[in-house]
## 1
Amino acid sequence: MGILDDIRARAGKFKKTICLPEALDERTLTAAAGCAKLDFGPVVLVGEADKIRTAAKNCGADISRAAIRDPDSDPEYEHIVSTLVELRQAKGMTPEKAREALKDGIMYAAMLVKLGLVDGYVSGAVHSTADTLRPALQVIKAQKGVKTVSAFFMMVLPESSPYQKIQPVLFYADSGLVQNPSPEELADIAIGTAHSWTALIGTKPVVAMLSHSTKGSAKHPDVDKVLAALAIVRQTAPDLEADGEFQADAALIAEIGAKKAPGSAVPGRANILIFPDLDAGNIAYKLTERLAGATAIGPLISGMAKPVNDLSRGCKAEDIIDAVAVTCCQAAASG
Ligand SMILES: CC(C)(COP(=O)(O)OP(=O)(O)OC[C@H]1O[C@@H](n2cnc3c(N)ncnc32)[C@H](O)[C@@H]1OP(=O)(O)O)[C@@H](O)C(=O)NCCC(=O)NCCS
């Protein structure tokens, strides 16, 4: 069974309620029908009920088992408005501005998550990463003890990859969100991604902090940043196995690690690669996808107080179902 089949099978058991705010999008409606067929928990669609039903009919999606949350008739609407005002008052939020903000289905979904009316949301088939995540960053916020929310890609390696037999799945972070992380942010990225590994894969996370240097082979402030982040990880999460700084080959290949980083237990066992910045993380995942033929799933989000996940605008309905399944597993892990 592939990792995605496994995640889907587990999602079916948790019966979590996941919101899909882009409810007029054909792929989203097809995915809502697919989630019901797989016997996931209920999917909640946000928007005008008539329009959603017509759109579903037009694309042949059976959404009879999905719930529709229409802000115009939602009995919780006023409570949602007043809670949003309360949460964002210091940022100038007023009841009028809150009503305006809630016309955005993604902000509505974020508030449903915040209030515990759903367990998480998945969006991004139509909206950009920034528009998908900003409402969540504003109202759901990072989980306790983590300041920085980050994005990772689950990289599923093909059988043709020489590394596939050692690690069939790797997480790359941050490959989609935090542009120029400070040491504190880089440490949060490592710890948050390790939590996601535990929630989704279930085996022991082993973190490699990557750089252009291995164990002092180069001296540069960029290397110092990675080492400072590693020190914070060790202090904040002493049980997490993490080491660095490593060049990618030293982290992945035990024989190279033995030469360049003697004494480290991480080389050849790393399953989480933490990149020094978004450029490196984003470029690396795309190169692995295109040159090694890996399947890249994401961007998936770590460190949010409740789970939220983004989609690529080129996604298919099956990708949305996978993201819903991931969100269910994250929701189950976060209680
Ligand atoms: C996600 C993103 C849009 C947020 O930036 P923004 O729209 O400028 O929003 P702001 O900086 O005003 O932040 C909004 C809120 O989220 C919080 N926030 C932003 N990034 C955060 C993070 N990584 N973790 C936790 N909180 C964060 C801010 O503190 C702010 O909170 P506040 O309003 O309560 O003060 C931005 O980080 C971004 O564009 N990242 C790159 C995404 C991208 O293009 N990826 C492409 C590769 S796939």
Note: The pocket of coenzyme A is lined by residues 91, 129-130, 133-134, 137-138, 142, 148-149, 176-179, 282, 299 (CB under 6 Å).
## 2
Amino acid sequence: MSGADYIPSPKDGAAWVTGASAGIGLAVVERLVKDGWTVYATARSEEKLNALAAGSGGKIIAAPGDVTDPEAMQGIVDRITAAEGLSLVILNAGVYIPMRAQEFNVDDVKKHMDVNIMGVANGLAPAMAYMLERGSGCLALVSSVAGYRGLPKAAAYGATKAALINMAEALAYDLHPKGVRISLICPGFVETDATAVNDFDMPFLMKTDDAAERIVAGLKKAKFEITFPLRFSLILKSMRFLPARAYLWLGTKAMGWDKIDD
Ligand SMILES: NC(=O)c1ccc[n+]([C@@H]2O[C@H](COP(=O)([O-])OP(=O)(O)OC[C@H]3O[C@@H](n4cnc5c(N)ncnc54)[C@H](OP(=O)(O)O)[C@@H]3O)[C@@H](O)[C@H]2O)c1
């Protein structure tokens, strides 16, 4: 079977979710448990993960770690695969620091790269090697609609999310013929601690439970790209087809994105 058609199932092993202590990741963990999954939950906040695991009847297992530490991520994958199979990995941990030209600084750019790109690569490398060896599994990278085109305040964040879109597409060519599926998750605005810093009206803002429902539904339908809310994603996605000059004109003249802080 082509990996593109692989539908992850708790019968094939456990799920692993990073960024599981809060926001979208936490909601996804809880949604997966409802479907019968045993979920290994990773984030830096060990106490939050332990509390989550304590009330789960053994369905959530705390696997604390910093995604920027490759050895820690290898250790978590080794731990899961020694205990049981691993059939679903959702690499969701990410950071968002609003950044326009006036706030552009190398430290914050590096923070985004370290967590949003290297943090994904650190989890992906051991999980992908295991699934390739096994000939099945599903890997999901959490990107964002902010990866489709450059958006205001997302100078560093958007660049990291665009990188993940490219990475997932590139890997699909190698993984799908080997029975391993890769999926790309591109949410619009979801109400979490990360977006609480935004001082502008977020169109089509969603609750985390709603986002988790759509993520899990998309994974069950073996979708390559899971993006929502549909109307917002379609608007942003269609902008990908515009030449850069036309896109920048639209953002400036029609959307007023150059004056968002004025
Ligand atoms: N919210 C949105 O509107 C939105 C839209 C599109 C895409 N996304 C993406 O969805 C993902 C989740 O976002 P969110 O809004 O749910 O964020 P959030 O509420 O801020 O949660 C972020 C999660 O990532 C973990 N994390 C951060 N740095 C980490 C590190 N170095 N190592 C391990 N875990 C780390 C955090 O836990 P600890 O602090 O305990 O480590 C937390 O569990 C991100 O990749 C984000 O870019 C979000």
Note: The chain has eight helices and seven strands.
